[in-house]
Amino acid sequence: MNSSLVKIQNLSYYYGKSHLRHQVLDNINLEIKAGEIVILTGPSGSGKTTLLSLIGGLRSVREGSLKVLDCELYRANEGKMIQLRRQIGYIFQHHNLLPFMTACQNVQMAVELQNNVSANEAKMRSRKILQVVGLGQHIDYYPRSLSGGQKQRVAISRALVNRPQLILADEPTASLDSKTGRQVVQLMQNLARERRCSIFLVTHDRRILDIADRQLQLEDGKLIA
Ligand code: ADP
Ligand code: MG
Predict the structure, then answer these.
(1) Residue 111 C-alpha to ligand 1 middle, in angstroms?
(2) What is the SS3 assignment for 163-195?
(3) Which residues pair with 38 in a beta bridge?
(4) How far apart are CA 13 and CA 22, in angstroms?
(5) Atom of ligand 1 nearest to the CA of 170
(6) Are the C-beta atoms of residues 223 and 38 closer than 8 Å to each other?
(7) 218 Cα: distance to centroid of ligand 2 (angstroms)
(8) Closest ligand 1 atom, CA of 16?
(9) Minimum CA distance residue for ligand 1 atom 27
(10) Taking the complete model, does pTM exceed 0.90, yes or no?
(11) pLDDT one-digit tens code per residue, 34-71
């Protein structure tokens, strides 16, 4: 594999059809290298989430080229996109944990989606990463009994447990106070450094910009370095 984990060329994106067509991304060019932490900022509605969901194979690319982990997503079929999704760790603004499962079970589910991993092995890996993020005492807690920061740590564990090469995070600190927000991104940064994975992080939070190797801004669908 070459050193670019993500390579985007002349990517444009539109919502709607014919006269209701509304352009959201306008000729985006971007490369993310292995191990790089890139932060994307920009006003609300500028297309950040759309770009992130295209990179993550959650939305179809119809104009331009988008290669992620050597997989071309332009006109990619569903099977190819599902395969790619398994190789990416996602962290969203709201933790999206399943309320009827414990912290450990939430993480474990992500492991069990991979082939060839026994339930026992999945449990062990999940317990281990929850300890790494400082939740060793909360492994069997349900989300309702965890604080916002703790829930986001579970979400980070779930995103990282399969050791993905790419992590996509959409405003991961938006629902946290500033101190907790900082701790959570530092944790992501440490884990990424240790494992040499890349992070593409969308944020409004000016207090965490310094964790980035590179900062980009999206304005009216155009990328500005
Ligand atoms: P950001 O994450 O920067 O706030 P989004 O990518 O969510 O921006 O949205 C960019 C633009 O696309 C906004 O004008 C938004 O209203 C529009 N948009 C987002 N999602 C959809 C959708 N599913 N259908 C139609 N328009 C959408
Ligand atoms: Mg958004």
Answers:
(1) 31
(2) CCCEEEEECCCCCCCHHHHHHHHHHHHHHHHHH
(3) 200, 214
(4) 9
(5) 2
(6) no
(7) 11
(8) 25
(9) 15
(10) yes
(11) 999 999 999 999 999 999 999 999 999 999 999 999 99
